[in-house]
Amino acid sequence: MDKKSTESAPRKRARGRPRAFRADEEAKTIQSLDRALGILKALAEDDGATLTELSERAEQAATTTYRALSTFQRHGIVEFEEDGQIWKIGPQAFRIGSVFLNRTNILAATRPIMRRLMRETGETANLGVERGEKVMFISQVETPQTIRAFFPPGTLSNMHGSGIGKALLAHFAADRAETILKRQGMDRMTEHTITDLGAMRAEFERIRQQGYSVDDEEAVEGMRCVAAPVMNAWGEPVAGLSVSGPAFRLTRERLGTVGRIVRDMAGEATRAMGG
Q1: Which residue among 114, 228, 245, 261 sits deepest, i.e. has the most Cβ atoms within 10 Å of its Cβ?
Q2: Nearest-CA neighbor of 34 among 66, 70, 58?
Q3: pTM of the shown model
Q4: Which segments of 90-236 are extended strands (E)?
Q5: pLDDT for 124-152, tens place per residue?
Q6: How far is residue 188's CA from residue 270's CA, in Å, rounded to a whole number?
Q7: For the chain, what are the domain ranges?
Q8: Domain 104-272: what homologous superfamily?
Q9: Distances in Å between the alpha carbon of 217 and those of 59, 130, 177, 229, 260?
């Protein structure tokens, strides 16, 4: 075939899935890979674990857990500390996770705003997004205070008891928000958690009117959070900005003042994102 014929030949479209793929066919998953990833997620829940602890947490046999860990270790995804016989997440896992963070410029746009937010409120500033119908924390600027909130990047939280979660839900389309609440449930995490759908609808209306949400010890006793949504160019909530701290410092008397600061800085982040 000459050069001209080659250039005029139609290009085959690259595929992301086999032609026979059906999304509802769970049988097409690789069971050993599925188990291994479950073990990795169990390891990520804490700052290291022994083989025994991890196999119990992942509900897998110790031999299965060890084979998976050894494979991940060869790729640098996990590390093993001989002294304490502890397995930990490795540097390659961070590199892989960083690809997700680099898909958006929201981290670069919000980081200086988060630092100012921490300085002005004196509390830890957080950035979270909705992933899998939960809040995933992706960035944090910690307060220097001894007692403070801490959410490592990747931490997941139920949306109905989270300041960021409620700020996002309040600005989602109503049917989407209620579908999430019904599917995930509204479990009572503390005596302050909102577990009634009607009460949550009223909460969403209040959030939209004042421009910020409050987690008033709804997820953890003794901790409060104030959050506001960050919007994209189409007015859709793509992230939530918040401050979290102990209730004895983040008092109810301060919530209005802190809420307006968070709301205004979330507005800055929105404008920085072109929203």
Answers
A1: 228
A2: 58
A3: 0.68
A4: 124-131, 134-141, 156-157, 213-216, 223-231
A5: 999 999 998 999 999 999 999 888 888 78
A6: 32
A7: 26-94, 104-272
A8: GAF domain (3.30.450.40)
A9: 32, 21, 22, 20, 19
